[in-house]
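Hello again, I could really use a second opinion on something today. I owe you a coffee for this, so here goes:
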Amino acid sequence: MKNLFVTGYRAHELGIFNNKHQGIPYIQKAIRNKLIPLLEDGLEWVITPGQYGVDLWACEAAISLKAQYPQLKCSIITAFSNPEEKWSDEKKGYYEELLRNIDYYAAVSKEPYQGKWQFIARDDLLLRKTDGILLVYDEEMGEGSPKFIKQRALRKQSEDGYSVLTISAEEIQSLADDDAETQFEEEQTYEMLDHELEREP
């Protein structure tokens, strides 16, 4: 697999409204965990639609792996021009910083938003240009915007063997739980050390 389409929930669908949310690092860690074996097997491009949420967190995850995997390139292909136009200044600043660190940016339609056909055209292109998709989506959490691209990816999988990889809410929660457990163990160790030091003459 050379080219991977990565997408998933928009931030607001997860109740996330800024980049300080504690859940984002675990989503990024889950993405990195899926990317590393693919990179070991020759993955070259991570391509996202650039919507605020999983798409942009995936770009950050990919950028963080570049030192270790210099062959990795990251691209944002949006449905229409200037998707960030109505975003808050904070989100715009974050997006512009990401654009400076990725390898390729393009808009499928050079026009501003006109209708859902632009999203369909974007997805057509991304499905055609990639060998597989990594989707952060969990039906058990309820339906969300990734439902439609998942249906199309599964259809493509049955037609020509397109790879469909997913990250579930359970996987992300498991990473958060492991982290909490490690933190707890470290705190216990520090407490024991404190007691030992207090007992020393």
User: Anything to note?
Assistant: Residues 84 and 95 are 8 Å apart (CA to CA). DSSP finds six helices and six strands in the chain. The mean pLDDT is 91.
